[in-house]
Amino acid sequence: MSSDIETLKAESEMNRLVSRYSTIVDWMDWDRLPDIFATDADIDFGQMFTGDLAGFTPFVSALEAGYDRRMHMFGLPRLDVTAQSGRAECTNISFTRTKGSENNDDSIIFGRYIFEGKPIDGAWKLTRLKFMLNAMHASQQPVADESMLNTCDGMQPGHPDKPSA
């Protein structure tokens, strides 16, 4: 029975890491990356970036800084876990809006993420992250009158609606 409970706890931890990754990137809360990654994590975005957390942080922060808006949506993960390690494979749709364009330069990226993690010093951390691209769709749309809506511009750590860690 206790192994079932340990497996459920491990599944919960892997789901939490996926959720926190998405929140950290969408809100550009780069100081939180060490909360979810092992320092020697293997991070692979193909030719765009391959390395560890120390290199990934400036890469992803520069990449995401080029967007006024960003949204990472993950499908239900396929989990393979034990009490000592976990793997989550998630489909992903991401939306970005490029900063400073005359039109709305939008991209929708379809891909798949592989997250691997394990307990390190009492806390679950990601030890591997890999992104694989399925397709990307870019478009330019005329700027619509968004003045009556709340927008996702300015999603950063100091934003009053940013969720807590």
TrEMBL record:
Gene3D superfamilies tied to this protein: 3.10.450.50
Entry-linked Pfam families: SnoaL_4
Residues in SnoaL-like domain copies: 7-129
Listed transmembrane segments: none
Coiled-coil segments on the chain, per record: none
InterPro entries: NTF2-like_dom_sf, SnoaL-like
Taxonomic superkingdom: Bacteria
Protein's name according to its UniProt entry: SnoaL-like domain-containing protein
